[in-house]
């Protein structure tokens, strides 16, 4: 006996925790163990609920349930009744506040049942339910949930959820085809989860094969392991064969369900307050109803079984429930982290941009200093290896400029010259070539700097202090003297009058000088100008390539104060106004909504985890 009591107390504690979770609307995130009453509008569902809870639910078709109702009975020393509305998952912030303000005060267990019609009317108004057929305002059904909690020393621990009854034909001026679909969707949402015990309410006086609710239950409970059939209105079954058919259902001989069937006669709309359950149950002692097992007949037997089922499924699912909450919490936190830091306020937006600038400048520094091992991005995208590409392009530019950079040439195959140095003929017919049209690139600061350097080299007076110029000029002069010396030696060696001379003959330089002196002043000037220009060109070409790299590429594009790589900086972020920050770093509305939903869900799940602690 002691063990049985401790088990019951443990079950009551778990059930209380499940109710706490449901009150916090955790059911929209994690399916909770629950008993859900489903059936047609005319199945006797409201009467069954009244028999189970002693709450006088309306039974008229026009006053049928328009929203889910959660009824909780708790055994407690202090009698009390609490009524509230749990906002639906899609309720707006304003609607939530309005519903949360609904808390009828001063309710007692006795007074509540008398006040219930008025409470129901006020709840309908809060939810925006349209009750007047002539009115077009409001909704016929709602996703909000009416929660009723009854506590007292004589109450059994039981929680059931009633959902609107299924109907197939719209009522003119009241319901529509959309309402039919909405109710079916609500029913499916409640019964689809494996933690839900389905109480399928079936009128005994109707062929069970025609009952849509059983078919609907089978869609989500194919093995029939969590569906319990409740046969109502047995007093309307008059024929003996029909009673036998109902008995066979309860005995499992037809349409068997793992949880079986129960037969309950409830007070009908025509029965008054003198309805006697004891006298009513006398009916089940008569043939052929007496064939039905006694523990399958009557409200009390059903209520006891429902309490056992709810406690059993709660005990079985409680550890899994805790694991599911933990897993969803991890997933939600990871998803929220993927959105990055919040960017709702000006301060958050500025901090976000500053963080990005730090990361960007760190990446730029690595790219310019070839520290490619510091970031995975360089492995994934080789085009980010900036300094490598710059060096390669600069070397290509230097090579191309060396081969193709000349604008004037001193070479003319058509020219006749008496000079031994044919390549030194001035070609006045050669015209100065032009650079490609670069107007499309003139907006770039680097291109402006490059064109400025070109203009200096082309239009200003050539001048250099580079010692390489004199060295190169002297080298050219010596080279020409050496060439003349070789020609003189060859001439002497080839002279038939002097066959005894050796090719290794040392030639007097005066002879060479006289050979040079024989040139006209014009020819000599041409050679001298050629040598000077050739030497200066080498200096100017190398200087130009260096200047293009240092001033145009490195200064303007890479490291200078106006480099594109330095624009995105913390100094720039400081200058941004609030409107600019919002435009650049503010979150999109869809991201804001997603973040808010995730933050709320995380808060709910953390609350759930606290409730579920052993």
Q: Can you tell me about this structure?
A:
GO terms for molecular function: GTP binding; GTPase activity; microtubule binding. InterPro entries: Dynamin, Dynamin_GTPase, Dynamin_N, Dynamin_stalk, G_DYNAMIN_dom, GED_dom, P-loop_NTPase. Keywords: GTP-binding, Nucleotide-binding. This is GED domain-containing protein. The protein has a domain at 66-162. The radius of gyration is 49 Å and the shape is elongated. 51% of the residues lie in helices and 8% in strands. It is built from 20 helices and eight strands. It has helices spanning 2-23, 45-53, 93-100, 109-127, 177-191, 212-220, 240-250, 277-281, 299-338, 346-368, 377-380, 386-404, 445-459, 467-494, 509-517, 521-559, 564-567, 570-574, 578-585, 589-611; strands at 34-39, 68-75, 80-86, 145-152, 158-162, 196-203, 227-232, 261-263. With 614 residues, the protein is an alpha/beta fold. An eight-stranded mixed β-sheet has the order 3-4-2-5-1-6-7-8, with helices on both faces. Mean pLDDT is 79; it is low at 412-436 and 438-443.
Give me a quick take on this structure.
This protein is α/β, with parallel strands linked by helices.
State mean pLDDT (0 to 100 scale). Answer: 79
Q: Give the CA-CA distance, first to last residue.
A: 24 Å
Order of helices and strands: HEHEEHHEEHEHEHEHHHHHHHHHHHHH
User: What gyration radius follows from the Cα positions, in whole Å?
Assistant: 49 Å
Major β-sheet annotation = 8 strands, mixed
What proportion of the residues form beta strands (DSSP E)? 5-15%
Secondary structure tally, helices:
20
Query: Major sheet: order of its strands?
Result: 3-4-2-5-1-6-7-8
Silhouette: elongated
Structural class computed from helices and strand pairing? alpha/beta
The count of β-strands is 8
Helix content: 40-55%
**Residue runs with pLDDT of under 50 for 5 or more positions:** 412-436, 438-443
Keywords: GTP-binding, Nucleotide-binding
InterPro entries: Dynamin, Dynamin_GTPase, Dynamin_N, Dynamin_stalk, G_DYNAMIN_dom, GED_dom, P-loop_NTPase
GO molecular function, one term: GTP binding
Pfam families: Dynamin_M, Dynamin_N
